[in-house]
Amino acid sequence: MEKKNLDWENMGFSYMQTDKRYVANYKDGKWDDGALIDDANIVMNECAGVLQYSQSVFEGLKAYTTEDGHIVTFRPDLNASRMVDSAKRLEMPPFPEERFVDAVAQVVKANAAYVPPYGSGATLYIRPYMFGINPVIGVKPADEYQFRIFTTPVGPYFKGGAKPITICVSDFDRAAPHGTGHIKAGLNYAMSLHAIVTAHANGFDENMYLDSATRTKVEETGGANFIFVTKDNKVVTPHSSTILPSITRRSIMYVAEHYLGLEVEERDVYFDEVKDFAECGLCGTAAVISPVGKVVDHGKEICFPSGMEKMGPVTQKLYDTLTGIQMGHIEAPEGWIKVIE
Ligand SMILES: *Cc1c(COP(=O)(O)O)cnc(C)c1O
């Protein structure tokens, strides 16, 4: 298979149309067989459920070229099961998990020419999503849904290595108790846009959201979970029913414990103790780990000892081990890597 002639080394993080996408439709109570198609556009009724009441969920994962030339994905079964959870919470029919994993493989294989070569730092981003497509005007779940997966090649999230970022404690809430913070739904992002635009206008890279019930505990940012490292090298992550269970974060906690032999804790993290941590990072598929150098709470600065120049040493080890597993230089735990071809 011949690769497309793209500038792999200098790709940004933006949408580029690729050749094929996967589409399946749900109608009369069942999913059809699904197929790869060429058309990147969707035609739907003006009253489609997704357009009126935002009935939509999504996932995000990547395909990589490993050192020995295979194309692989990382734990797609967890994306499949998380999308089932998201769908159920929005009263949508779950897309079967085995079919999800198979559809990811099909669409990656069909766009193999766009999977960036090993060593370029770029990857093929995979976006599965599902939405209500039939007309809905009275408030109720749609009867018909479309599940799609497209892919787009993306550059490394941080060009020239990850410099620590500065985040601010947000005045806005991301998720309500018993709300939808734990599912991957577009609606959580729609309402976070004002908060992120505001943070950027004030000179910050990201928002730290606190729990909306008490505003004393750390939750997450708009699209990434937190990890903290204590001064005695324990890896701590907030436990909360209103954060999105990041696959990257869950993998990092496993790597910390089983590969690096570190103590790990998933527990309430009070904002008051953030000042005592040695390192802080944001975990998500896009950047794997983005180091945080500074947290600003209404003018009060918390500067982590790891500084503003580079990742802290434990964060760096976690990053190197996880990306080593993804790229195939470090042996992966059973079932983490799905070889596509
Ligand atoms: C997708 C997402 C993450 C990161 O999850 P990964 O599975 O690691 O990509 C974290 N927080 C939110 C709100 C998200 O939507």
TrEMBL record:
Key word Transferase present: yes
Which cofactor is recorded for it? Answer: pyridoxal 5'-phosphate
UniProt xrefs under Pfam families: Aminotran_4
Its EC top class is transferase
Q: Which residues carry this modification: N6-(pyridoxal phosphate)lysine?
A: K184
- EC number(s)? 2.6.1.42
Q: In which pathway does it act?
A: Amino-acid biosynthesis; L-isoleucine biosynthesis; L-isoleucine from 2-oxobutanoate: step 4/4; Amino-acid biosynthesis; L-valine biosynthesis; L-valine from pyruvate: step 4/4; Amino-acid biosynthesis; L-leucine biosynthesis; L-leucine from 3-methyl-2-oxobutanoate: step 4/4
GO BP, one example? branched-chain amino acid metabolic process
Family annotation (Gene3D superfamilies): 3.30.470.10, D-amino Acid Aminotransferase, subunit A, domain 2
InterPro entries xref list: Aminotrans_IV, Aminotransferase-like, B_amino_transII, BCAT-like_C, BCAT-like_N, BCAT_family
Catalytic reaction(s) noted: L-isoleucine + 2-oxoglutarate = (S)-3-methyl-2-oxopentanoate + L-glutamate; L-valine + 2-oxoglutarate = 3-methyl-2-oxobutanoate + L-glutamate; L-leucine + 2-oxoglutarate = 4-methyl-2-oxopentanoate + L-glutamate
Q: Name one GO molecular function term.
A: branched-chain-amino-acid transaminase activity
Keyword annotations for this protein, in alphabetical order, are: Aminotransferase, Pyridoxal phosphate, Transferase
Decide whether keyword Transferase is in the record.
yes
User: Record's family?
Assistant: Belongs to the class-IV pyridoxal-phosphate-dependent aminotransferase family.
User: What is this protein called in UniProt?
Assistant: branched-chain-amino-acid transaminase
